[in-house]
């Protein structure tokens, strides 16, 4: 039996125990399963109370059931839903009763959404949007995913494909009427105007994007610096819980610790790394090696120091680095940062304010090339609002105008790039022969078909849908 002909079921709500659990059944036998358990088939799309019974007529639960006959359902197939009390015992009994029906099996990850895709209920960009919506942790991620689910990119791609087909039809007509005087030339000119406008439109979309893809994963901020300067205390403050061991002894952190934050809707991963220093301890050496690796991959580095302001291990490269002096609660002379503590060199930010003093409560300073300096007490919380505000500002600048972005995945960007390239080659080749130009238009249309998931995408379907949870 083909998998599409099998009826599938799964828990579509959260893990038990819960107040209510939703079990969904989709496929040819969904109506039969519902009738056997509830005693009758309820009115379509109306919530109906029913006492569910197994094949031995033993009561399972007093539930609410719904019936969605295909194709007017989420998957395009017949769909039944059971809203039951969310105990493990109820679900075990219900699963046993459903699976007792021949040809009915438990669903695989993403199988409900894949059936919806295969039955034309949504295209591949909308399926990707649904996946992103399920995994959204912040409000900005939610809004971006919802726009994709509502067809922001898919609708534009369908419009682009229609326009390519129209231009291709004009070029094909020019080939067919090649003996009709000025007719072919007029058709080709009209087609080229359409192609040029379409190319510029897609090129503008690609040029204006770039950070929206990153919104799905967020940015990475690494807390780095010498040992025993308060890195673990700072990450605990940012996380508002104890995620790292805090000790007065140097070298406590041996591995990388990650904390995921929601900063004004932006997803930010903050990592606490091992203190960077030369050491003979092989375990600490491995921690330092991992720390350097994660710092090199970060989008922003917070270089944490105390009054001594050690330069040992300062990251090289083009990564933005902010100087953060900790333990100002232990400083004397009005918590002033001395010029020695402010003279750390960075390849990106240059020489940081060697003569400028920072006092507790002052606004964060900036070097001439844009690197910022903060004075904090990770233990007491002094200066943390200013540091967090700086991180929010950094995230806002980093993501730019991602609101309303069309491209949210590397796959989408790659295929749109192929479309733009095909359109450019079409315009370049038309003088050499209309047949060559027409072939490039077919290639552009094919790439848009792949973007929507309507042609030759079997190689990417598994990779996309296997990331979905069971029951979706």
Topology:
Elements: E1 7-11, E2 18-26, H1 30-38, E3 48-53, E4 59-68, E5 79-86, H2 88-99, E6 104-106, H3 111-118, H4 124-134, H5 139-149, H6 152-176, H7 183-208, H8 212-215, E7 219-224, H9 231-239, E8 257-263, E9 266-272, H10 282-297, E10 300-305, E11 321-325, E12 345-346, E13 350-351, E14 365-366, E15 372-375, H11 384-399, H12 410-429, H13 434-452, H14 458-465
Parallel strand pairs: 1-6, 7-9, 7-10, 10-11, 11-15
Antiparallel strand pairs: 1-2, 2-5, 3-4, 4-5, 8-9, 12-13, 14-15
Helix pairs in contact: 4-5, 6-7, 6-13, 7-12, 12-13
- Number of helical segments? 14
- Give the helix level as a range of percent: 40-55%
Question: Which strands sit side by side, in order, in the main sheet?
Answer: 8-9-7-10-11-15-14
Q: From the helix content, strand content and strand pairing, which structural class follows?
A: alpha/beta
Strand composition percent? 15-25%
What can be said about the biggest beta sheet?
7 strands, mixed
């Amino acid at each position: 039996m083909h998998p599409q002909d099998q009826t599938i079921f799964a828990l579509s709500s959260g893990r038990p125990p819960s107040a209510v659990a939703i079990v969904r059944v989709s496929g040819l036998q969904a109506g039969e399963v519902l009738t056997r358990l509830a005693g009758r088939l309820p009115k379509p799309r109306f919530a109906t109370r029913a006492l569910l019974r197994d094949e031995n007529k033993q009561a399972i639960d007093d539930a609410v059931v719904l019936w969605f006959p295909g194709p007017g359902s989420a998957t395009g197939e017949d769909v039944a839903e059971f809203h039951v009390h969310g105990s493990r015992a109820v679900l075990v009994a219900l699963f046993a009763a459903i699976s007792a029906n021949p040809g009915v099996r438990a669903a695989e990850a993403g199988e409900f959404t894949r059936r919806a895709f295969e039955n034309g209920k949504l295209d591949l960009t909308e399926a990707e949007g649904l996946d992103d919506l399920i995994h959204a942790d912040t409000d900005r991620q939610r809004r971006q995913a919802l726009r994709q689910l509502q067809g922001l990119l898919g609708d534009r791609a369908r419009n682009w494909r229609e326009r390519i087909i129209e231009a291709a039809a004009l070029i094909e007509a020019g080939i067919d009427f090649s003996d009709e005087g000025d007719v072919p030339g007029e058709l080709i000119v009209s087609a080229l105007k359409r192609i040029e406008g379409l190319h510029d439109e897609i090129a503008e979309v690609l040029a204006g994007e770039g950070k929206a893809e990153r919104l799905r994963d967020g940015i990475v901020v690494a807390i780095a610096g010498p040992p025993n300067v308060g890195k673990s205390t700072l990450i605990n403050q940012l996380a508002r819980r104890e995620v790292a061991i805090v000790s007065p002894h140097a070298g406590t952190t041996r591995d990388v610790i990650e904390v995921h934050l929601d900063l004004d809707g932006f997803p930010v991963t903050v990592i606490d790394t091992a203190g960077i220093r030369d050491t003979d301890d092989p375990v600490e050496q491995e921690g330092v090696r991992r720390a350097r690796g994660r710092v090199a991959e970060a989008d922003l580095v917070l270089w944490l120091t105390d009054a001594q302001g050690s330069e040992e291990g300062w990251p090289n490269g083009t990564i933005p680095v902010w100087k953060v002096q900790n333990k100002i609660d232990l400083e004397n002379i009005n918590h002033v940062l001395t010029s020695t503590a402010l003279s750390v060199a960075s390849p990106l930010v240059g020489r940081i304010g060697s003569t400028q003093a920072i006092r507790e409560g002052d606004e964060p300073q900036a070097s001439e090339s844009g690197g910022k300096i903060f004075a904090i007490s990770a233990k007491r919380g002094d200066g943390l609002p200013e540091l967090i505000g700086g991180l929010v500002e950094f995230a806002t600048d980093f993501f730019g105008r991602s609101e309303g972005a069309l491209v949210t995945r590397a796959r989408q960007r790659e295929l749109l790039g192929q479309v733009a390239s095909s359109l450019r080659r079409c315009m370049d080749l038309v003088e050499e022969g209309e047949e060559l130009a027409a072939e490039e238009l077919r290639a552009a249309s094919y790439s848009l078909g792949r973007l929507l998931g309507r042609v030759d995408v079997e190689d990417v379907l598994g990779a996309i849908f296997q990331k979905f949870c069971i029951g979706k």
